[in-house]
Write a structure and sequence with these properties.
Largest sheet: 7 strands, antiparallel
Distance between the termini: 30 Å
Strand order of the largest sheet: 1-2-3-7-6-5-4
Shape: globular
Number of helices: 3
Number of strands: 7
Order of helices and strands: HHEEEEEEEH
Structural class: alpha+beta
Length: 167
């Protein structure tokens, strides 16, 4: 049984609609596709972010092993993607909040949510969740691996570094 649900109320409102060709959006090279970047369009709105384009197979496999390549999933945020190893049920889940969900460039604890301070503004929540700001977006990454505990936190911090550069 896998718990991919993100229990903290941290990111923007609704799950991202799935695109018709998720594998095409991810690309097949050594880095995320161009669709993974955001910016300000001519209308002043931030570009949409596809969470499934933010990590490469080469970045996910060392953490959870063989996996499904990442699929849009439900959760808290504008775009949520989960990578799961079907044999071990180890997983990585990335949730990207909408523009303005971390308007000050930082995050605050939600009422009733217990968290632990981590490096570089990261907040660790229960269930292996690392909550962080990426620009003006409130985001999360959840690592569920055989290592568990502090090892998953170390992995989450590394992934946050990659994700911040790509969101």
């Amino acid at each position: 049984m896998v718990s991919l649900a993100l229990t903290a109320s941290a990111c923007g409102s609704s799950p991202a609609p799935s695109s018709g060709s998720e594998s095409a959006a991810r690309g097949s090279g050594g880095g995320p596709s161009a669709g993974a970047t955001t910016g300000s369009g001519g209308d002043g709105q931030s570009a949409a972010v596809d969470a499934c384009t933010l990590l490469t197979p080469e970045e996910v496999a060392p953490v959870i092993g063989k996996n499904d390549g990442g699929r849009p999933t439900s959760g808290v945020g504008d775009s949520v993607c989960g990578w799961e190893n079907p044999e071990t049920y180890h997983s990585i889940t990335v949730s990207v909040g909408g523009p303005g969900t971390a308007a000050s460039g930082g995050i605050k604890d939600e009422p009733g949510v217990t968290s632990e301070a981590g490096p570089e503004g990261i907040r660790f929540l229960s269930g292996g969740i690392a909550r962080f700001a990426a620009g003006d977006r409130d985001c999360q990454v959840q690592v569920v691996s055989g290592a568990g505990g502090d090892d998953d936190k170390v992995t989450a911090v590394k992934l946050v570094g990659l994700l911040r550069d790509r969101i």
